[in-house]
Amino acid sequence: MSVTTATAPLAAPVRRPRSLRAERRWALYGSYVALGFFVIFFLIPPFHMFMTSLKTSAEISSESGNPWLVAHPTLSNYIELILAPNFQTFFWNSTKITVCVVVITMVISVLAAFSLARMKFWGSQTLATGVFLTYLVPESLLFIPMFQIIGALGLTNNAWAMVLLYPTLSVPFCTWIMIGYFASIPKELDEAALIDGASWFQMLTQIFIPVAMPGIIAATIFAFTVSWGTFLYPMAYLFSSNQMVLTVGIVSDLIRADVFQWGKIMAGSLMAAAPPVIIYAFLMDYYIAGLTAGATKG
Amino acid sequence: MADGSIAAAPSMPGVASYAPPGGLHRLMRRRSTIAFLMALPLIAIIVLLVVYPTLYAIYLSMLNKRMTKFVGLGNFVFLLGRPTFQAVIFQSVLFAVSAVVLKAGIGFALAHFMHNIPSRRQRILRGLLLIPWVVPLAMSTLGWWWLFDPSYSAFNWVLNAFGAPSVPWLGQTWWARFSVILVNVWYGAPFFMIMYLAALKSVPEQLYEAAAIDGASAIQKLFFITLPMMRNIISITVLFSLIVTFANFDIVRILTNGGPQDSTHLFSTYAFQVGIQSGDIPLGASVSLFMLPILAVFAFFILRGVNRRTKEQMG
Q1: What pairs with residue B70 in β-bridges?
Q2: B301, closest residue in chain A (CA to CA)
Q3: Which residues of A touch B27 (CB under 8 A)?
Q4: B9 inside domain
Q5: Cys staple from B265: which of A3, A101, A243, B258, with CB 3.0 to 4.6 Å?
Q6: Does B93 touch chain A (CB under 8 A)?
């Protein structure tokens, strides 16, 4: 520090009037201001949704007063929705589909990742590349032929069809990040296990899964988020309200009426958004690890 | 433990790779059989639910509307000649390119701001800034839809309070285009921030110290250290986001459903309207297949970037 203060005035007295420390401090304040601005921008929609969800329909349509604030907060929108059989069905459908998809995804991708990362077989390298390419295939490319396939299987308008379809979205990425986690486990561990006479299955369940637990949690969160929030497939294949999941149910069922019940729509959206947000709040580090794993782990 | 691993390390790879044909050969064969069986469910998903539907889509796209006659490339020719579809191509490119550029720019700036502040404060801010990415997109888009409502828009209320006229957020072509891009930027910028922050943290601090000693300015540090060091991750993220943004469905479907006058349709929403709602499956399949070559090119470059990155990390 003393070196900088001594040389700076000599070397460039006009160009650098501020000391390095003052410059750093301004950069810090500037960063806080910019970050604060974006926090506000990013939280405007959820905030406004929450405010609207606390209003009665009368207060929403009165057009007097500040739309950003609520004058007479009420929980009636939430209570009515929780008691509505339709909404309960949506929630139950979303839950059962998500649980099945997460279990299926994790079983398939952990087995496959273990085999691709450690055991190798003819073509396993190509398959690993194929997994990554499959991850890049978006659902909007496949939903039209899938419509025909689902129809041919007799699963049109059946919530269980989603259990068949969602793994196409979750399995490739989960396998990909599990390959990364498994590959980072030192080879000495499996050699020690092999010497002790462990089978491949024991090696997987007793060494790889416990050691790669952070990766497994990250992949589980990803599978959960994907199957909870997917919109296109249920939108295209489910059209009666006893088969719908939350995302589609709220969009089509609460809006079907002529009068939009905005308070209820917002309350329903927030309740549908709650499970992923709660999981994220508790497991943020795993969530972020999973997010960055796709590109930073090879 | 230490003794065991030292003793084991030289012998085990030897057994595995230089096994004489015979008993061990059988073991190898069994091992690869087990491995193949473990990967079989994954292969089944890829082949039956991704590769087969893609090929089936190509087949479907060459049929006529009632799927009774083979028309070759007729659907594609028909689409390209249609002004509505030309607008879809234009809007998809505009949407994807401008949204990705903005997301990458904002994400890059946010990552830098975040990198400037002490790490104990980063946690809470990072937690708040990532919320748009965590909320299911269909749900948050409903919130935006309500913010853009023609008569109750809370944005217009603010504008009116300052004496400005109301904005037809979803009612006019260019405002509607702006709005769908805005929502996409809001949703995707946090992802870029997280990726770039992780990349920034991996740039060695010594490089900046060396540059500071040489008298480099902040802009020189950005162009000669940060950007070259992050080049690979930047290109992977941008290409990946281009794919996801091109294929986006939720935002346009909920906000505008393609309107006004089909000016905000993307490939996916237009394919949905043509294929599912109007029941012309072959035409819908051809619309979504227009994405395939674009995606293939991006995927090629992403794969190259990821492979290069893996090599860098290993070497």
Answers
A1: B63
A2: A133
A3: none
A4: no
A5: B258
A6: no
Q: How far is CA A49 from the centre of its chain?
A: 20
Tokens 């401008």 belong to residue = B98
Residue A296: C-alpha distances to residues A1, A221, B312 (Å):
36, 18, 11
User: Looking at the 3D structure of chain B, how many domains does it have?
Assistant: 1
Helix (H) / strand (E) element for B60: namely helix B52-60
Confidence of residue A276 (pLDDT cuts 50, 70, 90): very high
CA atoms of B230 and B222, how far apart (whole Å): 10
- Whole-prediction pTM: 0.87
**Structural domain includes residue B128:** yes
Q: Measuring CA to CA, which residue among A179, A160, A229, A286 is closest to residue B42? A: A179
Is the Cβ pair B295, A141 closer than 8 Å? Answer: yes
User: d(Cα B148, Cα B150) in Å, to the nearest integer?
Assistant: 6
Q: Which is nearest to A178 in space by CA: A120, A226, A113?
A: A113
Classify A238 as helix, strand or coil: coil
Range of the domain at B117: 81-314
Task: Provide the CATH number for the domain around residue B277.
Answer: 1.10.3720.10
CB contact under 8 A, A295 and B9: no
A2-28 burial string, b = 16+ CB within 10 Å, else e? eeeeeebeeeeeeeeeeeeeeeeeeee
Residue pair B284/B271 in contact by the 8 Å Cβ criterion: yes
Nearest residue of chain A to residue B151 (CA atoms): A63
What residues does B63 pair with on adjacent strands? B70
pLDDT band at B17 (very low <50, low <70, confident <90, very high): very low
Q: Residue A9: left if φ>0, alpha if ψ -120 to 50, beta else—which one?
A: alpha
Q: How far apart are CA B139 and CA A266, in angstroms?
A: 8
Indicate whether B249 belongs to any domain. yes
Token duo for residue A295: 């590109």
Q: Per the domain annotation, does B65 fall within a domain?
A: no
Tell me chain A's radius of gyration from C-alpha atoms: 26
Q: Kindly indicate the confidence band of residue A71, based on its pLDDT and cuts at 50, 70 and 90.
A: confident
User: Average pLDDT, whole number, for chain A?
Assistant: 86
Give SS3 for B70: strand
Å from A89 to nearest chain B CA? Answer: 18
Instruction: Kindly report which listed range (A200-209, B28-37, B109-118) carries the lowest average pLDDT score.
Output: B28-37
Give the Cα separation of B153 and B164 in Å (integer). 14
**Structure confidence at residue A66 (pLDDT):** 83
Q: Residue B225 is encoded by which pair of tokens?
A: 């250290």
Which of A24, A49, A140, A200 would best serve as a mutation to test chain B binding (most B beta carbons within 10 A)?
A140
Q: In the numeric block, which tokens belong to residue A50? A: 């929450």
Distance CA B95, CA B106 (A): 16
| 3-state class percentages of chain B: helix first, strand second, coil last, to nearest 5 | 80, 0, 20
Residue B63 DSSP SS3: strand
Going by C-alpha positions, the residue among B146, B306, B259 that lies closest to residue A269 is B146
B63 backbone dihedrals φ, ψ, rounded to 5°: -105, 165
Residues 6+ apart with CB under 8 A from A251: A231, A235, B138, B142, B254
Measured between CA atoms, the residue of chain A closest to residue B41 is: A108
Contact flag B195-A49 (C-beta cutoff 8 Å): no
Asked, as a colleague might, if the bond just before B260 is cis with ω within 30 of 0, I would say yes
The residues in B 73-92 lying below 8 A from A, measured between CB atoms, are none
